[in-house]
Amino acid sequence: MMPLRLFGEYLREGTVRKQSPDKLRARSLLLESKDSYKILLSIAAEMGVNDDNANHVIKNAYDIVMELIRAKMLMDGFATTGKGAHEAEVSYMTMIGVSLKDVDFANEVRYFRNGIMGRNLTRNMLVKSSGFSKEYIQHS
Asked: What backbone torsions phi and psi does residue 78 show, to the nearest 5 degrees?
């Protein structure tokens, strides 16, 4: 896995573009992420979490966090497109004060989530992921 580049590099190459803030779309993503989080908690409570379903739970938790990051980007007047868009979104986390430890973790999940490695994520990673997701969802 390659390290993330600085957010400004994605902006300069055109993966990220500056635009007018899109508050309506940002709000929609915020609401959707909160609904998805409630559903994820419900599923985890009803089914429990084990090595058989941890991969799906982590993927959903990652998607929820990334919806929040996209919402923040839209509020700040940024949009991503094309190859490298996911990396740019994770890189943006450094611009909004997310710790490097959490950015690295998000990048690791992104790497596995987007199927580059073709590996299932385990319950151990889920423990890290759920705390990470909960922190960012509660602060949005």
From this structure: -125, 150
